[in-house]
Amino acid sequence: MTQRGVTLWFTGLSGAGKTTISDAVEVAIRAQGRNLERLDGDIVRENLTKGLGFSKEDRDTNIRRIGFVAHLLTRNGVIVLVSAISPYRNIRDEVRQEIGDFIEVYVNAPLNVCESRDVKGLYKRARAGEIKQFTGIDDPYEAPLNPEVECRTDLETLEESTAKVLAKLQELGYL
Q1: Catalytic residue among 22, 86, 116, 161
Q2: What's the CA gap between 105 and 144, in Å, rounded?
Q3: pTM as predicted
Q4: pLDDT digits (tens, 9 = 90+) for 10-29
Q5: DSSP the chain
Q6: Is 116 a catalytic residue?
Q7: Domain boundaries of the chain, sorted by first residue
């Protein structure tokens, strides 16, 4: 069986549930014996884009680098799960054009819900002024206009969000 490559790009605020949903999607896809790779924003920042800050230019460079790696994997038949805040619409659109086989998954939760989850304590630090240019606080997040999938993590269960993503993969012929 030849597998078609595709990049699933999970975008949303910190704490919206990008990594949680992509973890569950990964389990389901691996259970089918598919080739899959994960590119998580936090892990990529530690390894591939170390030294970049959080200015718009550095964020764009970070997303372009993630997009480049995702493109290489996708064109070689790998299903790529990218979990990255990627706050700017134009750079997400640029990466979409580059990759081609691209599914945007908007992991949508209101700011107050994300702040209440705040597992890493980042919102608290941003509100205290310890972190500058924090997405959703003093830096913008530009929500996708037409994502292929929208997961409302404040209104649906993890299972429902995961099912939406898997259904879209099936509908588009990737699974």
Answers
A1: 86
A2: 9
A3: 0.93
A4: 999 999 999 999 999 999 99
A5: -PPPPEEEEEE-STTSSHHHHHHHHHHHHHTTT--EEEEEHHHHHHHTSTT--SSHHHHHHHHHHHHHHHHHHHHTT-EEEEE-----HHHHHHHHHHHSSEEEEEEE--HHHHHHH-TTSHHHHHHTTSSSS-BTTTB-----SS-SEEEETTTS-HHHHHHHHHHHHHHTT--
A6: no
A7: 6-108+141-170
CATH fit for domain 6-108+141-170, picks 3.40.50.10070, 3.30.450.20, 3.40.50.300, 3.30.70.1560: 3.40.50.300
Q: Hey, which residues does 79 pair with through a beta bridge?
A: 6, 36
User: Strand pairing partners for 135?
Assistant: 139
The vertex-114 CA angle with 16 and 96, nearest 5°, equals 30
CA nearest neighbour of 99 among 76, 68, 78, 77: 68
